Amino acid sequence: MTLDRRALLAGLAGGAVALSCPRRAVPFEPECFAASRKDDRGNFQAALFTLAGDEQAIELPGRGHDIALRPGGGEWVAFARRAGRFGVAVSLRSEPPIWFASKPERHFFGHGTFSSDGRLLYATENDYERRRNDRRA
Q1: Distance between CA 90 and CA 18 in Å, rounded?
Q2: 18 phi and psi, to 5 degrees?
Q3: What CA–CA distance (Å, rounded) separates 46 from 34?
Q4: pLDDT of 72-93, one tens digit each?
């Protein structure tokens, strides 16, 4: 296998991201994973799971993309895949999920992250009318 510049940069970027993630941000033991998926019935879902199975899963109205975990635990957020308009915040407690949407003239790009203190959620979105890409908190 040859190593080209693109593969090297991707590997370095992935390693930097992994090292910058605080261990305390993920409150699950053993290792927990987060992913958007399509189940065997064809339904779109977002889920937190371990090798033993699902910890938590929620059905989505369309295809999901990224999942952000709140630092310190307690909540995770799933975003619609580009050019979707929905997002959902899911509590790790028994609270109901909180659904939200972009404005009608905008859509999400599928990614988001919390600030390091967990107080703000940042999401990437597109503003059709002004032809601008925004990052909003």
Answers
A1: 23
A2: -60, -40
A3: 7
A4: 888 999 999 988 889 999 998 8
Six-digit token string for 19: 């090292």
pTM (2 decimals)? 0.69
Residue type, 18: A
Token pair of 60 as six digits: 């989505």
Which residues, listed in sequence order, are joined to residue 98 by a DSSP beta bridge? Answer: 89
79 to 17, 31, 69, 82, 113: CA distances (angstroms): 20, 22, 12, 9, 10
Residue length, the chain?
137
For residue 61, the 8-state DSSP code is S
Q: pLDDT tens digits for 90-129? A: 998 888 999 999 888 888 888 899 999 999 999 888 876 6
The band of 28, judged by pLDDT with boundaries at 50, 70 and 90, is very low
Decide if 36 contacts 43 (C-beta within 8 A): no
H or E element that contains 11 = helix 5-20
State which amino acid sits at residue 25.
Answer: A
Sketch the domain layout of the chain as residue ranges: 5-136
The Cα–Cα gap between 58 and 48 comes to: 9
